[in-house]
Amino acid sequence: MSLKILTAEQIREADRVTIEEEKIESLELMERASAAFVRAFVKLYDEKRPVFVLCGTGNNGGDGMAITRLLISQQYKVSAFVVGDLEKASKDFSTNKERLEKFQTPQHVQEVGQLPEFPADSIIIDALLGSGLSRPITGLLAEVVNRLNTSGAEIVAVDVPSGIYLDKPIEAGSAVVCADMVITFEVPKLAFMLPGSGKHVRHWKLVNIGLSKSYLNEVKTTNCFTDTSTIADIYRRRDKWTHKGDYGKILLIAGSKGKMGAGVLCARACLRSGAGLLTVHVPASGYTIIQTSVPEAMALVDSSEEEFSAPPVLDGFNVIGVGPGLGTAEHTRQAFKKMLQQVDVPMVLDADALNLLARYPDLMEHLPKKAILTPHPKEFERLAGSWQHDYERLEKQKEFSRKHGVVLVLKGPHTSIAAPDGRVYFNSTGNPGLATGGTGDVLTGILAGMLGQGYEPFDAAVLGVFLHGLAADLAARDMGEEAIIASDLITFLPKAYQKINDPSFNISAQVF
User: Fold this and answer.
1) In the predicted model, what is the mean pLDDT of residues 1-24?
2) Are 493 and 269 in contact (CB under 8 A)?
3) What is residue 186's three-state secondary structure?
4) CATH class of the domain at 3-221
5) Given a cut of 80, is residue 104 above it in pLDDT?
6) Could you tell me whether strands 154-158 and 123-127 are parallel, antiparallel, or unpaired per DSSP bridges?
7) 10, 148, 301, 502: most buried by Cβ count inside 10 Å?
8) How far apart (Å, rounded) are the C-alpha atoms in residues 142 and 158?
9) Does 509 score more than 50 pLDDT?
10) 292: which residues sit within 8 A by CB, 6+ positions away?
11) Mapping DSSP to helix (H, G, I), strand (E, B) and coil, where does residue 126 land?
12) 3-state SS string over 8-56?
C-alpha cells in the first residue's frame, strides 16, 4: 500500500478524528508530534551543535516550544525565539510556552536585529508557521525568514517550511524558508513533490505521530507516494516454468542518422529490464550499429538510409516502443501515423514520437488506450499547453491522461505518473545525476520491457520509473551524481532488481 498524500483539510480532519477517538486534548497530540520530531532530530544531528528554535505564535510555534523543552532534556544547547503577537497566540502555544519557561525564557523578537549571529555550525529549527500559513509572509516575519536563509546555518523545518502552502502555489512576494531538512508529520506533502515549492525542500523525513489508523486507511485520495510497499504489491518474480515468449515480443522503432545512440540505449535498457524477445526497427544506416551494439536484439531495416519512413509488419508483436532518436521528418510523420492506425497493443511513446503528436494533434485520436507517454515538462507543455503554476500543471496532467485514456509519465524530480482514472503516483527514487542526455531513452526501454512482461500499463510505469531512479541512486553512490551517464543506468539496473528482491530493502527508511 502506497503512502497517501493528503490535502490540508484531510490532515486537519485526521487530527480531529484522532483527538475524538482517543479522547485526548489537542495539546497531547502536539506533544506527541513534538516528541516524534525530536526522536528524528537526535538521530540526525549531534548534540554538540548549537540549536536555535524560531517560533511563531500559532500551533507550529507551539510545536517549537515543546521541541525546545524536549531538546533541553536531551542535553542540546538550544535557545528559543518567538516572532509574532503574543496576545493573539493559540492556546496550545501559550501552554507550551509556560512549560518551557520552567527551563528557559524564550526571547520575544520585535525587530530582526534582536536575532543573534548564528554560528556556522549551528542548526536553526523553523517553527514559525508550518502548515498554518494563511497569507503571504511579509513585514517582520519576512525579514526573519530572509535572515535565516542567508545565515549559512543548517535549517530544519517542523512539518512544512514556513511560506509553503500544502495545496496551492507560493504567492508572489512572499518570503519562504529554504529548508535543508524537513521533518514532516505522518504523511508526505504534495508541496514537496512539485518544483515551485519543492525547490525549498532539500531533504525530508517522515515521522509517525499516531494519527487515526482507521481514518488514514479509509480516507480517499488520488495522490500517492511510491515506496517499497507499492513496489512489493506490483513486482512479480519469475515463474520457473516460463520461457522467453512469456516476457514479451517487443518492437522498438528508434534511431535516425546521427541519433542511433538513442536507439542503442533504449534497446539495451529494454533487454536488461527483462524483455523476452526484442526487435529494433532502424534506418539502413543504423543496421551495423544496432547489430554490433545490441547482439541480443533482432533488427528490421527501413527502406530509408537515414530515417523511419515506413512501418514494418506489426503482426506478432505485443508491445511497441517508439520515439528515441526518431526525428520528425515528413516521411517519419507519415510512417508514424500509418503505424498508429494499425496498432492495437500497448505502446510507449517518448521523445520525437511526442514531438510529432504535439505538432500534429490529429495523431492523438489514433493512440491506443493505456499507452504510456513519457514527456519531460517542455514536451508536455507542447502537448497540453502552458500553465500558470505547478498545481495547474498537475491538473492538466490528470485531464490529459483521462481525456486520451493514456498513462502519462511527467519526468522530473519525484516523477509523477497519472492514470486515466485520476490516480497520480509520485516517485521516490532518482537524483540530479539523471539530468544528462539519454536517460529518457533508457526509461523508454525499461517501460517497454515492463509491458512485455505483462504488467498493466500503470503498474508498468510505476515499477519502471522506480527501478530507473533506483539504478541512478545506486550509480550515484558508486560514482557521484555528476559523473553519471545514461549507459550507467543500464549497468546498475541488475543491482536495482537485486535491491527490490532483498527483503531488508526499504525506501521507507526515511520514515522514522
Assistant:
1) 94
2) yes
3) coil
4) alpha beta
5) yes
6) parallel
7) 148
8) 18
9) no
10) none
11) strand
12) HHHHHHHHHHHHHHHCCCHHHHHHHHHHHHHHHHHHHCCCCCCEEEEEC
Phi then psi for residue 344, to 5 deg, are -135, 30
CA-closest candidate to residue 124, choices 205, 52, 65 = 52
CA–CA gap between residue 34 and residue 55 (Å, rounded) = 13
Distance CA 77, CA 50 (A): 5
How far from the centroid of its chain's Cα atoms is residue 284's Cα?
39
C-alpha cell at 218: 479509509
CA distances from 83 to 38, 54, 89, 301 (A): 21, 7, 11, 70
Total residues belonging to the chain: 512
| Beta carbons within 10 angstroms of residue 205's beta carbon | 18
Q: Is the dihedral of CA 421, 426, 429, 433 positive or negative?
A: positive
79, containing H or E segment: strand 78-83
CA 309 to each of CA 124, 283, 304, 328: distance values in angstroms, whole numbers, following the listed order: 61, 8, 6, 11
Taking a C-beta distance cutoff of 8 angstroms, is the pair 176, 162 a contact?
yes
- pTM for the full predicted model: 0.96
Closest CA to 1 of 207, 224, 236: 224
Q: What is the DSSP string of 252-290?
A: EE---TT-HHHHHHHHHHHHHTT-SEEEEEE-GGGHHHH
Spatial contact of 161 and 200, defined as CB atoms under 8 Å apart: yes
Domain ranges of the chain: 3-221, 231-502
Q: What is the pLDDT of residues 373-422, one digit of tens each?
A: 999 999 999 999 999 999 999 999 999 999 999 999 999 999 999 999 99
- Average pLDDT score over the chain: 96
Is domain 231-502 in CATH 3.40.1190.20, yes or no?
yes
Q: Which three cell numbers, joined as nine digits, stand for 255?
A: 534511431
Read off the C-alpha cell for 327: 526525428
User: Strand pairing partners for 125?
Assistant: 53, 156
Class of residue 46 by CB neighbours under 10 A (exposed 0-12, middle 13-18, buried 19+): exposed
Measured at the alpha carbon of residue 201, what is the angle toward residues 10 and 227, in degrees to the nearest 5? 60
